Amino acid sequence: MSKRLELIFENEMGANVTLSLDNPVYPANPLVISAAMDSIVAQNTFVSSGGEIVAKKAARIVDRTVEEMEI
User: Fold this and answer.
1) What Pfam families does the database record attribute to this sequence (predicted)?
2) To 5 degrees, how large is the angle CA 67–CA 70–CA 71?
3) I need a surface site. Which of 19, 61, 62, 65 has the fewest CB within 10 A?
């Protein structure tokens, strides 16, 4: 089982840009995540193919379970 934190932003073209972080601290603190996302937007930390990131949209923890099968 693995977890991934996905930070979803909007770029200048209106498209979604997702930044993924493996193995986040769990349970995650929404206030800390929101503040980090605000910082990313304010500092123009990343640029996407559709331009600069201009707004935060959402954050989510994705939990993935893989079950190996013997064949």
Assistant:
1) DUF2922
2) 130
3) 65
- The neighbouring-strand residues paired with 64 are 2
Q: How far apart are CA 31 and CA 35, in angstroms?
A: 6
- Whether pTM > 0.85 for this model: the answer is yes
Q: Tens digits of per-residue pLDDT, 9-66? A: 999 999 999 999 999 998 999 999 999 999 999 999 888 999 999 999 999 999 988 8
| Alpha carbon distance 56, 31 (integer Å) | 13
d(CA 24, CA 43): 22
Type of residue numbered 34? S
Residue linked to tokens 């769990």 = 26
Q: How far apart are CA 13 and CA 69, in angstroms?
A: 43
